[in-house]
């Protein structure tokens, strides 16, 4: 099947590719019960050497910058307590960590989580972290702009491979909170 976005050789329904996904992502796809059928989550094989956004869009199509999203793990701190959450914003923007994230987490301070914390807590590879399959008690802050994109390219839990997911499905992820203005224009 042809991917609805980007220049990929082939796209396959994610439920047919569970063995290619990180374990927590495969479990989430297997258990998905949202209004968008799991068969509409597509897997595309990609080269892990070009997984970083700038190189990736150069290779697979510049239009992907507006059709892909980055998922970052953040840590909010207040009174010695730390809360982990994920933020999903379009790749053409950056996460408003000091404004929207702090407010949503009720934190005095918020920052990107260290790489070993992000990978250890998610069970995913750095550079491939995705909102699909995150720990069930996490909040997933989703920039409202992501929901307006018909098909969004995201990580698959590893640096090899990506998922293409209908944007509206992100509002149905466990722990999802849609936030206006979570993504700020990139400098």
From TrEMBL:
YbaK/aminoacyl-tRNA synthetase-associated domain: residues covered: 63-171
Pfam families xrefs: tRNA_edit (PF04073)
UniProt cross-references to Gene3D superfamilies, sorted A to Z: YbaK/aminoacyl-tRNA synthetase-associated domain
GO molecular function, one term: aminoacyl-tRNA deacylase activity
Family matches, as CDD domains: PA2301
InterPro entries (UniProt xref): YbaK/aa-tRNA-synt-asso_dom_sf, YbaK/aa-tRNA-synth-assoc-dom
Protein name stated in the entry: YbaK/aminoacyl-tRNA synthetase-associated domain-containing protein
Species for this entry: Streptomyces triticagri
